[in-house]
Amino acid sequence: MQSAKSMSNTLKQKIQPGAHVPKHLTIVLTASFLLIVLCVLASLAFGSRFVQWDQLMAGLFHSEVDSYGATVVRERIPRTVFSFCCGAALGVAGALMQAVTRNPIADPSILGVNTGASLFVVCGIAFLNISTAGQYIWLAIAGAMVTAVFVYGIGSMGRGGATPLKLVLAGAATSAALSSLVSAVMIPRTTVMDEFRFWQVGSVGAGSWSSIAAFLPFLVLGLVLALLSAPALNALALGDEVASGQGVRTGVLRMTAAFAGVILCGAATALAGPIGFIGLLSAHLIRFILGPDLRFIIPLSAVAGAVILTISDVGGRLIGSPGELEVGVVTSFAGAPLLILLAAGMKVRSL
Q1: Is the pLDDT reported for residue 313 higher than 80?
Q2: How far is CA 126 from CA 215, 270, 275, 282, 325, in A?
Q3: In CATH, which of 2.40.110.10, 1.10.3470.10, 3.30.70.1620, 3.30.565.10 is domain 79-344?
Q4: What is the pTM of this model?
Q5: Contact, 266 vs 224, CB < 8 A?
């Protein structure tokens, strides 16, 4: 059996800043580009009405064409862009939470962060009469931040500190309690309940250019902070002592990376609802393909998250045709079995 010291050295070699680029990175990037193109075309073509290829091209490249099919394509463009933005944000948020907590099953939905954002948004609508996307985002970020701090504090209590299992249990308990509060706020208020009963499930159907414009600054800020933190997070994966020895300020790093994750998760939740498991699926997929180096995991988790969410949205439209099945339901069906497999395989140890 490989010794702990040998395993640590192996991991260190894999994630050192000077480590070689994975041999199959070019293949992964090419496949990612092709998947993005296919997802865009599928999102524009499929729905309550299937759009033929000529109408699809007309809607994309010929603004003078005003046929029904071309008009449908133009109306689906903002939804597709919005889906990619939300998926990228949730994918990176999941990768950051796994790195900061050193918990391989950390995810905004599992740790209760999505639910905290939902509670603040619902309370803002019910008690403060907020109505704009910008107001939703600020409240959701505040709720996500408070919940993340609370869950980490609860999970850190007792012997052993914030172990992966304790964090998951704290997140599950917190999420259940906050979900009850969300229901308690919504049920007596018919207007609030009617407006957000589908939002609470998670959907990208309301994506528009105005919501994308409100979301974009938070997406850019979160992605920049995540990418800047990636090399230091690699050092953190070797342990706090090793990271400190390499000059990493572990406390500041954790706060910065967690802040980036909260921004991304909160903003996405505010506009699309609490969509679960995207971060878990994305980060695990990229880690399985490329290894543990966060310099590659973080940017490619954005791509994987965007692709997974968009595929789930298209799948929901096809399954629920002529209506649609909300994307939050589809991602839950896909993510729950993965979570069960990870737990059953005893993979809840530290990364």
Answers
A1: yes
A2: 22, 15, 21, 34, 26
A3: 1.10.3470.10
A4: 0.85
A5: no
